[in-house]
Amino acid sequence: MLRSMFQEQLDEVAGRIQVLGTAVLKQLDAAIDGLSTKNRAAVQQIIDNDADINKSELDINEKVFDIIARQQPVATDLRRLIVVMKMAGDLERVADFAVDIAKVSRRIDVFPNEELKQELIELALDAKGMIEKALHAYATKNVLTAQQLAKADDEIDERFGKLIKKLFRQETTDQDVEAITQLAFIARYIERIADYATNLSEWILYEANGQYVDLN
Length: 216
Description:
With about 220 residues, the chain is mostly helical. The protein contains six helices and no strands.
């Protein structure tokens, strides 16, 4: 009976990662939409929602600490709890990047190049897709999917580098220079989101086999 109750606690706190992940994905969706449509109200909502994301991470950590203090888990169970905390922290950081994208997008009055704007949005959607896949891999304990995200991250890195070069090769006015600089910041935030998706994969692998593998 005691083991059954403990397992329920482990499952409950692990389930909170999916709840947090869903909230973070909504933040990313809103940030990408704000970049595309210049919806300032949506952008402000992203900033306002960040406090809830931060609180969710803290609540998860407090729950993990409580379980450790009361149950004193070892081996696999302790590793599982550590992974919950690490993934919560990484997801919270991804939400921070969504806020950063939202804040920077408010400073861009006119996009200097619509083609590059679309390329940036596609990059953001693919980085968000990596977070979705990492969360699914965690829920289904799919180690293969987690490993494959490292290749996706390499592709994002390559596209990021090419996009930056394209941005700064544009013929620009003074107004364009400011917009291009802000777009470069956004591209960097997107690249970092993909990095954090890879971090999530690393924690999935760590939970599965007890060894930390650097996929970045």
